[in-house]
Amino acid sequence: MRLTLIGLVLVSATAMTANAWHVGQSDVRVICPMTIGGSFDAKTTSLSGSVTVSASGSPAFDGSLAVDLRTLDTGIDLRNEHLRQNYLEVDKGPGFDTATLSEIDLKGFSPDAPEGKGSFGGLLTLHGVTKTVTGAVDVRQVGAGLRVKASFPVNLSDYSIRKPRYLGIGVKDIVQVEVAFAVTR
């Protein structure tokens, strides 16, 4: 009996791994509109994680996607330092050094073979705060995997991030996140 139970657990774990979508090459771009007009981008390629179709039958995927916020680059060293240390406070550790999207629910897609344009929802944990986010998503077949492009707004005050300001110039409260990444099983 015990051997059968162990066998079932191993088969289930193997099946779950085979259905997991693992993140590959990625580009994350946070568009930061400035209070005086114009904008700048904070970019990184440091997206990791994997998701699987939920075993509970829920439409949301199990697993998560995470961005290492310590790698965000605005192209200006002083702005990078202010972004990471003063506003994102990445040195506070877990919950501050990464942004994590979990409980991802693709709307209008088949979880087993998602493809096309639609929307998504999920839980974004940023700056130690977890809130629901929604946005647009485009999923396309590319070779043996998928190419995912998603975008969503983030209201900085929702995540207790103080208003970025330097010498009277600042970033508006709502920034736009654009993510493009490959996933394979």
Could you describe the 3D structure shown?
- The structure is a single chain.
- The protein is of the alpha+beta class and 185 residues long.
- The chain contains two helices and eleven strands; from the N terminus they run αββββαβββββββ.
- It has helices spanning 2-18, 77-87, and strands at residues 21-33, 39-44, 47-53, 61-68, 98-107, 116-126, 129-142, 145-155, 165-166, 169-170, 174-184.
- Strands 1-3-4-5-6-7-8-11 form an eight-stranded antiparallel barrel. A two-stranded antiparallel ribbon has the order 9-10.
- Strand 6 (116-126) and strand 7 (129-142) form a beta hairpin.
- The two termini are 32 Å apart.
| Rounded mean pLDDT score | 87
The value of Rg in angstroms is: 18 Å
**Category from helices, strands and their pairing:** alpha+beta
Enumerate the strands of the largest sheet in spatial order, edge to edge or round the barrel.
1-3-4-5-6-7-8-11
Characteristic key phrases:
single chain; 185 residues; alpha+beta; 2 helices; 11 strands; disordered N terminus
In brief, what are we looking at here?
With 185 residues, the protein is an alpha+beta fold. It has two helices and eleven strands, in the order H-E-E-E-E-H-E-E-E-E-E-E-E. The protein is 15% helix and 51% strand.
Secondary structure layout plus pairing:
Elements: H1 2-18, E1 21-33, E2 39-44, E3 47-53, E4 61-68, H2 77-87, E5 98-107, E6 116-126, E7 129-142, E8 145-155, E9 165-166, E10 169-170, E11 174-184
Antiparallel strand pairs: 1-2, 1-3, 1-11, 3-4, 4-5, 5-6, 6-7, 7-8, 8-11, 9-10
